Amino acid sequence: MNYLLRLLPYVLLAGVWYGNTLSGWWIAFGPLTVFGIHPLLDNLIRNKIPNDDGADSAGFLNSTLYVLPIFITFFLFHGVARFTTSEILLEKVLLIIGLGTGTGGLGIVAAHELIHRPIAWQRALGIYLMSLVNYTHFRIEHVHGHHRYVSTPEDPASAPMGMTLYEFLPKTLIGSFKSAWDYEVQRVKRKKGFDRFKSNRMFHYALYFLVLSIFFGSVFGTQGLVVFYGQSAFAIFLLEVINYIEHYGLSRSKLPNGAWEPVKEWHSWDCDYAVTNFTLFNIGKHSNHHAKASVEFPHLENKEDNPKLSFGYSTAVLLATVPPLWKWIMDPKVIERRKYIESNSGETQNIGAFQPT
Questions:
Q1: Phi and psi for 164 in degrees, rounded to 5?
Q2: What is the distance between the alpha carbons of residues 93 and 74, in angstroms, rounded to a whole number?
Q3: CA distance 137 to 132
Q4: Burial level of 167, CB count in 10 A (0-12/13-18/19+)?
Q5: Which of 348, 7, 319 is nearest to 164 (CA)?
Q6: What is the pLDDT of residue 84?
């Protein structure tokens, strides 16, 4: 049963794919799979399926990760072709949303796991998946920026308590690109002339964008570019909503020497909902991922003491788009968590550097 459940990413992708093959209102089956069926199942069977770490089946779990880029590629190409043959505006909009949920909701999650791997071909698969949504600089910023500055004002991908999703989006979109660019400039600054240019990975990623744009424009015309960029935008939106959710309101203290305290497992929100973790490669065990970024997803642990979301990821995405509802649910949890940390550590958390807005 556990092996079958770990194939849920493909079931989810197949649901969206099937929706993209239909016409009229049926094409909404794709988005409905992700934002209707997924949260429903997440809440219905949360306590009925053991959410273990999958360590005993790590080889099988990793194989499901490695072949996903093949399915995402065919999924994207099929969707673009389907878009260019449709003449109904509603179908086109739903197709873009459906594609973005597949390339973002699954593709980027898989890419996130792969870009942390020490083996070059696995990182390359992650970069390839990110190139399909035109967000390849995420690899640099996430690994070298976000993991270093998470839950501080220096991290564009962390949201303080009180910041709405719509305030967070421009902050993270602009800040993440700048962070990646600044990192690469510093990394290659000792090189001279053309070596400095060719060593800067931001230029490599710009070339990937150009090549893919030329490909989709040449093969599918202007409409191909519209859907390629459109699904990218929706996939990036999903990624940044997840960033917003994962660290909302959680902050690190400043030490007497001015440095930030080490990243700890209470600086990320965990989600122990079974369907979320089975379909999204244990993304809900995010606290342990930040504490041990090199650990592969089958071996991540979900500790009871970590901050917990009271809903699955797909539900969280929907809630975050309604700021008053999100704040009403989450702000008391943030305050409660801060009090818990203070009472158990004996130290007052220095939240002044990351004040609620």
A1: -80, 165
A2: 20
A3: 12
A4: middle
A5: 319
A6: 86
pLDDT digits (tens, 9 = 90+) for 164-173: 999 999 999 9
The answer to whether residues 155 and 146 touch, using CB atoms and an 8 Å cutoff, is: yes
Share of the chain above pLDDT 90, in %: 57
Query: Do the Cβ atoms of 130 and 138 come closer than 8 Å?
Result: yes
> Can you read off the two tokens belonging to residue 301?
């642990």
For the chain, give the percent of residues with pLDDT over 70. 93
> Beta-carbon neighbour count of residue 116 at 10 Å?
20
Q: Taking phi first (over 0 means left), then psi (-120 to 50 degrees means alpha), and beta for anything else, what does residue 139 get?
A: alpha
Are 150 and 289 a contacting pair, CB within 8 Å?
no
Token pair in block for residue 308: 């917990």
Which residue has tokens 């699954």? 106
Stated pTM of the model = 0.91
- How many angstroms separate the Cα of 357 from the Cα of each of 236, 249, 257, 334? 24, 10, 26, 14
Distance CA 33, CA 99 (A): 12
Residues with Cβ < 8 Å from 278, sequence gap 6 or more? 5, 6, 8, 9, 49
d(CA 76, CA 78): 5
d(CA 164, CA 162): 6
CA–CA gap between residue 240 and residue 23 (Å, rounded): 30
Q: Which residue has the tokens 């309101």?
A: 249
Cα-only R_g, the chain:
20
Name the band, by pLDDT with cuts 50, 70 and 90, for residue 132: very high
If residue 131 lies in a helix (H) or strand (E), which one and from where to where? helix 120-131
For residues 211 and 19, give the distance between their C-alpha atoms in angstroms, rounded to a whole number.
Answer: 29
The residue behind tokens 């360590």 is: 55
Q: Cα(86)–Cα(88) distance, rounded to whole angstroms?
A: 6
Angle between helices 165-187 and 323-345 (to 10 degrees): 60
How many residues are present in the chain? 357
Higher pLDDT, 4 or 183: 183
Tell me the C-alpha distance between 319 and 331, whole Å.
Answer: 13
> Do the Cβ atoms of 22 and 95 come closer than 8 Å?
no
